[in-house]
Amino acid sequence: MTSSSQPSGAAEVFEEAAPSYDRTGVSFFGPFGAELVRQADLRPGERVLDVGCGRGAVLFPAAHAVGPTGHVTGIDLAPAMIALTAEDVARAGLDHVDVRVDDAQQPDFPPRSFDAVLAGLVVFLLPEPQQALRAYARLVRPSGRVVISTFGVQDPAFVAATDALAAHLPTEEPRPTRPAGPFADEQAITATMTGAGLAVTSIVEHRVESRFDDADHWMRWMWSHGARALLRHLPTDRLPAATADAAAALEAARVPGGGLRLTTEIRITVAVPVEPPGPPHA
């Protein structure tokens, strides 16, 4: 999920994107998901919840990490995402993985059900991120952890191309926003996690280089994830001009020999639940 400007019907956006989500030949969600799992330090036999699982960028490496003695549950609010990911899970023969439709804002599980709750590029999309994190804190055992990823610095060419598209939106449509508020920087992330009853143990930055054949390939990728929230509001008669302006902005990312190269940074935050204070001494 790559756009921080989601409409209230975010589930509808990802429902439409599900068939092509992470299936356009671009290295993006997979490397980010694998690094989140690495930072989570999952161990064989652990029980894990992957919120906003999408097509499994976090789910599958987590399943590998906990092994057949562990268990991974993936949830997503878009039924098509869950249906397609369930097919992938079945094809892979992963009996210790299940996926279901559920809300990342307030997952429906008993307290202390998991050793780890993972959320890859999803919490900032939720209507009440800190409330969601508080729910995750309740779901992990005292020795467990909550691990999330949020966007850091985005490639200037990506920002310019996205702004070029947004310039063609009708005046009443909101423009994309940059990472800000509760996840703007390490200080904001720490304060957000603290307010949710979580103590941050580490925040690391991770960068991924994504390559595209050309601007048309980039546009197909944009339609395949959360950026669809912007594109679907572009009037049909404005789309050719918007695409041409985006292509011009992307020229800054062209590499020798052809193609485009964009670099994206995320921050991966690991936090543990803070034990509530005990009763005062007599």
User: What is the average per-residue confidence, as pLDDT, rounded to a whole number?
Assistant: 92
pLDDT < 50 stretches: 1-8, 277-282
Annotated CATH homologous superfamily of the domain at 10-154 and 181-211 and 267-273: Vaccinia Virus protein VP39
Fraction of residues in β-strands: 15-25%
Q: What would you call the shape?
A: globular
Describe this structure in words.
With 282 residues, the chain is α/β, with parallel strands linked by helices. The chain has a domain of 183 residues: Rossmann fold (3-Layer(aba) Sandwich), CATH 3.40.50. It contains 10 helices and 7 strands. The protein has a 7-stranded mixed sheet with strand order 3-2-1-4-5-7-6, with helices on both faces. Strand 1, helix 3 and strand 2 form a beta-alpha-beta unit. The longest helix is centred in the first third of the chain and has 14 residues. The protein is globular, with a radius of gyration of 19 Å. The termini are far apart.
